[in-house]
Amino acid sequence: MFMYFTNLIVCVLGCYQCIGKLPSDIGYLINLNHFDLLANDLTGTIPPGIGNLKNLTHLYLWSNQLTGKIPPEISNLTNLTHLDLLSNQLIGTIHPEIGNLKNLIYLTLGYNELTGDIPESICQLVDNGCWVHLTDNQLCPPYPSCVEDYVGEQDTPNCD
Predict the structure, then answer these.
(1) Using DSSP, how many helices (H) and how many strands (E) does the chain show?
(2) Which residues contact 142 (CB under 8 A, 6 or more apart)?
(3) Backbone phi and psi for residue 17, each to the nearest 5 degrees, phi listed first
(4) What's the alpha-carbon Rg for the chain, to the nearest Å?
(5) Nearest Cα residue to 143 out of 14, 60, 132
(6) Which of 33, 138, 14 is closest to 81 using CA atoms?
(7) Span between the terminal Cα atoms of the chain, in Å
(8) Do residues 22 and 44 lie in contact, with contact meaning Cβ atoms separated by under 8 Å?
(9) Pick from 76, 104, 109, 80: which is nearest to 92 by CA?
(10) Residues near 86 by beta carbon (within 8 Å), at least 6 away in sequence
(11) Shortest CA distance to 67 belongs to which of 95, 88, 36, 53?
(12) Which pairs count as long-range contacts for 117-124, CB under 8 Å and 24+ apart, including other chains?
């Protein structure tokens, strides 16, 4: 589907009651710099092909029903300034490669089901002035001191 839209620069379909899954061929949108599908009814996983969108600066997928892990390929999106995955059902850990996103000024991963430790590499983002929101996951202490103010409530019974 997306292979026919390679020149698309902006895609804003937030709050349009979109349903279904993110297409696996999303990686064809190589010129895309703003991708906004917030507050829809999207299900399934975030395709790894999203890592091909090297020009992407804004990725808004909050308030959907996305599941699975955050693909490590997101760390390829070094031009990202805004990454918003708030209020989904994402699982797994936060990859240490998140620190590669040196241009981030806004990172929201709260209200998911993320587990494990918060990687120290996230401190590189905070040191660069990135606002981080991690509340309401299952992230385990001890937390890096740089994010203690951003961790909020966590469901920690499964932590060691």
Answers:
(1) 1, 12
(2) none
(3) 60, 35
(4) 15
(5) 132
(6) 33
(7) 45
(8) yes
(9) 109
(10) 62, 63, 108, 109, 110, 111, 112, 133
(11) 88
(12) 117/93, 118/94, 118/143, 118/144, 118/147, 118/151, 119/93, 119/94, 119/95, 119/144, 120/96, 120/144, 121/96, 121/97, 122/94, 122/98, 122/146, 122/147, 123/99, 123/147, 124/99
| Selection from 100, 96, 115, 108 nearest residue 134 by Cα | 108
Would you say the pTM of this structure is higher than 0.70?
yes
**Which pLDDT belongs to residue 18?**
84
Which two structure tokens, joined as six digits, stand for 94?
């936060």
pLDDT digits (tens, 9 = 90+) for 5-43: 788 899 888 777 888 999 899 999 999 999 999 999 999
pLDDT in tens, 85-100: 999 999 999 999 999 9
